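Extended Data, panel c. Modelled sequence:
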Amino acid sequence: MPVTDDHSRESIRARLTASLHPLASGLSGLPRGGHRAPHREAQRAAAVLVPVLTGSDHEVLLTVRSDRLSQHPGQVAFPGGRREDQDRHVVDTALREAHEETGLLRDRVDPLGFLDRYDTITGYRMTAVVGWVADPNPLEPDGREIAELFTVPLEHVADPDRYRCDRVRHAGKTFEILTLEHPEYRIWGATAAILADLGRRLRGEN
């Protein structure tokens, strides 16, 4: 059954909340579990926001990074970044970065919990905060870091047949990464892995 058929907005929210790592598990540290980069221990803390927009449709907001950036130019990503000294915890990091990159106001986001921790092959320990956005303010990419915003339906995210495993080379090593098929954008790597984690929870597999 599609994840949104015969389910109200609140029932989808309740299902997600019940399946996520609780907020208390990440306010003083980081959620356990998840993917660990095989070549080294990730040292740099980062957080992303996984904004679930719940208007007429249920969609996940994603960004396209500017081609002018030195790191990951043109790639699809969640709003987020490195944890800064002023951030009290990873939820602060995710909300601050989302506001800076997309204009999404903090008070429009209701954090529900965490997905599994994800250690990237570039040395970041990433925490994904799922945020429920029932009434978003008008959004606009900041232009310096973000070139474009787009959304992916939850039905798409929850469909396991839309994911495939690819191989990439980095720092002389070969890694297996996920790719989420999309007609317009290449969604791969950590972004696809986080979406796959969200999709499993939407299907009730976590």
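DSSP finds five helices and eleven strands in the chain. This feature is highlighted in the accompanying rendering.
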